[in-house]
Write a structure and sequence with these properties.
Elements: E1 6-7, H1 11-18, H2 25-28, E2 30-31, E3 46-51, H3 68-76, E4 86-92, H4 98-114, E5 118-123, H5 128-134, E6 143-148, H6 166-172, E7 178-186, H7 193-201, E8 205-208, H8 209-214, H9 219-224, E9 228-232, H10 254-266, E10 272-276, H11 285-303, E11 317-324, E12 327-334, E13 340-344, E14 358-362, H12 364-371, H13 377-387
Parallel strand pairs: 2-4, 3-4, 3-5, 5-10, 6-7, 6-9, 7-8, 9-10
Antiparallel strand pairs: 1-4, 11-12, 12-13, 13-14
Helix pairs in contact: 1-3, 3-11, 4-5, 5-6, 10-11
Length: 388
């Protein structure tokens, strides 16, 4: 595989790794080094790729950054009893232009996803999610993106792409592959009413910070349906991170963001996972440790994936049918995991995006609501998107 655009993990990190316990994660990884080159990926399940690109950040003033502190923190953690193999492929450096960096990242993700290897992208600015999305062109017909963010990042799609407007580009640039875009942890006062209305009119999903903090389990079905998960570190509250990273007094706490990372890992569909907007500072240990723990929980989640979405065998699930406002809703419950799905019907008279009965992950509560004659919100939005 041609990964010539990747630079190796720094000698400083490798020297630090030598001093760690033999049981530490850093000793279990395959690492791209100057001495040994890029490791073989034949038995690898997950790879870590840094992307040192932040030029499309709205507040970019020429600053450079590196990811050594995150790697030191991550390598020093102890793995769980995992059977997943992880490699660190080093970093994609800034290209001549931002588009060059996008191209390199897109190529890397495309190659890895084709090989059933999950990339964890550690990034500068979150507009890199656009390149991540474009890597799926031709891979799968429709893409679901989940963004953990205080903002929707829809922006003005007529202007050049920035880290606060990349979603507008994803929606409007051809080829049109986006089926659902969900935002978790948004804070209303950071989003214009126009953007909030646009999210509603497109039937995209959004979960306010208060909803998520009240019941973190509501993000699980959304994650189960995601292909791409993108985390903006500004969604984490200021008290949890170091000086440069502080953004808002309100936000997700450390436990919540790690739980979300684990849900992303457990999802059988998530095939790329990115953490963006990392800004090192002199007192950086706390942010780098938090990012490391998020990565740890994602890997832990991947390790506990269970194939529970095979509905061709009746013994794998229970089927429930309920009537809501003369609409027949069909639910499935996995016998393996207890997780729930709801059927989105196939509409033959319209040019249907899904082309078949599609099962949408949901919660037990959605079934209970349906029994009380209430249409589940996720079902309604997916049904409407399907009709557009």
């Amino acid at each position: 595989m041609n990964f010539n655009f990747l630079s190796p993990v720094s000698d400083l990190v490798l020297a630090h790794n030598e001093l760690l316990s033999p049981q530490a994660l850093g000793k279990k990884l395959k690492i791209h080094s100057t001495q040994n080159g890029i490791p073989e990926l034949d038995d690898i399940d997950i790879v870590i790729i840094g992307v040192l690109e932040n030029r499309n950040a709205v507040d970019y003033i020429g600053e450079e950054f590196e990811l050594d502190e995150i790697r030191k923190s991550l390598y020093g953690l102890f793995p769980g009893s995992w059977n997943t193999n992880v490699a660190d492929l080093g970093d994609i450096n800034k290209g001549e232009s931002v588009e060059d960096t996008y191209f390199a990242l897109k190529e890397a993700i495309n190659i890895l996803v084709k090989k059933n290897i999950i990339p964890i992208i550690l990034g500068g600015s979150q507009d890199l999610t656009y390149a991540n999305y474009r890597a799926y062109d031709g891979l799968i017909p429709m893409v679901n993106i989940v963004n953990i963010d205080a903002k929707f990042n829809l922006g003005d799609s007529t202007k050049p792409i920035k880290n606060n407007s990349f979603v507008g580009k994803i929606i409007l640039d051809q080829p049109y592959n986006l089926f659902n875009y969900a935002t978790i942890g948004y804070q209303t006062y950071f989003n214009s009413q126009e953007e909030i209305d646009l999210m509603d009119s497109l039937y995209f999903e959004s979960y306010r910070l208060g909803q998520v903090s009240k019941d973190i389990t509501i993000v699980e079905p959304v994650m189960r349906d995601a292909n791409i998960v993108s985390i903006d570190l500004t969604s984490v509250r200021g008290a949890e991170v170091s000086l440069n990273q502080k953004y808002s007094p309100n936000g997700l706490d450390g436990k919540e963001i790690c739980a979300i990372a684990r849900y992303a890992g457990i999802s059988n569909k998530v095939s790329s996972f990115g953490i963006y907007e990392y800004k090192p500072s002199k007192d950086d240990e706390i942010t780098s440790m938090l990012v490391s723990q998020m990565i740890w929980y994602f890997i832990e989640g991947v390790n506990f994936r269970i194939k529970d979405n095979d509905f061709s065998d009746d013994s794998n699930y229970q089927k429930f049918i309920t009537l809501v406002e003369s609409e027949e809703l069909v639910f499935y419950k996995s016998n393996k995991t207890g997780r729930w799905w709801i059927e989105i019907p196939f509409l033959s008279e319209i040019n249907n995006k899904l082309k078949r009965h599609t099962l949408l992950p949901c919660m037990h509560q959605d079934y209970l609501d349906a029994c009380n004659n209430k249409v589940p919100d996720r079902w309604y939005k997916a049904f409407q998107r399907n009709c557009v």
